[in-house]
Amino acid sequence: MFYRPEDGHGLPHNPFNAVVTPRPIGWISTRGADGSENLAPYSFFNAVAYEPPQVMFASTSAKPDRDGTKDTVANITETGEFAVNIVSFEMANAMNMTSGPWEKDIDEFEKASLTKAACSEIGCSYVDGAPAVLECKLTQITTLPGEANRVVFGEVVGVHLRDDCLVDGKFDVTKFHPLARLGYRDYTKVQDLFSLSRPGDG
């Protein structure tokens, strides 16, 4: 099968998201200039640089009460800060609850019965108990072709690691099984690992 996206795929569901998988989930927490809290998951998310450490996530839709974007991007535009909470398998249902199209005055931490913790380097809250949290300062927001498509880049200025996830000096993902997004409404968890040595490794 071959198709041009501009012509349509002819399938019952769009296969694009199922092709680019698995995708890590950035559970982004922000605080608006008015002090309101927001928490929402984004599966167009990844790390993009080591030095200094930087991450990105993309927001691809809009809410009627946010002038062409979503609460997360609106808050970051106002404050220049956000935190990335890494999602463990045990937090799947709470993460899913925060994905709803809630009005901007709804606090998703409360909606999903999550406990807040205060970030150290930025002004917003993070998910208490998350296996890792990246506190970020906005570097740029880029507009992509298409309606409401924006990519947010941030520099990581603080890192929280849950102590039980550190084993022999390494951050061990098998201690919490990261949740990853597949296509459609499907997810998976990381639980099996294998290692490869790169050519030229000593």
Account of the 3D structure:
With 202 residues, the chain is mainly β. It has one domain (15-188): Pnp Oxidase, Chain A (Roll), CATH 2.30.110. 11% of the residues lie in helices and 35% in strands. It is built from four helices and 14 strands. The chain has helices at 16-19, 71-79, 92-97, 108-111, and strands at residues 23-24, 26-31, 37-42, 45-49, 54-59, 81-86, 116-118, 125-127, 132-143, 150-161, 166-167, 170-171, 179-181, 187-189. It has a seven-stranded antiparallel beta sheet with strand order 3-2-6-9-10-5-4, with helices on one face. Strands 1-13-14 form a three-stranded antiparallel beta sheet, with no helix packed on it. Strands 7-8 form a two-stranded antiparallel ribbon. Strand 4 (45-49) and strand 5 form a beta hairpin. The longest helix is centred in the middle third of the chain and has 9 residues, at 71-79. The radius of gyration is 18 Å and the shape is globular. The mean pLDDT is 96.
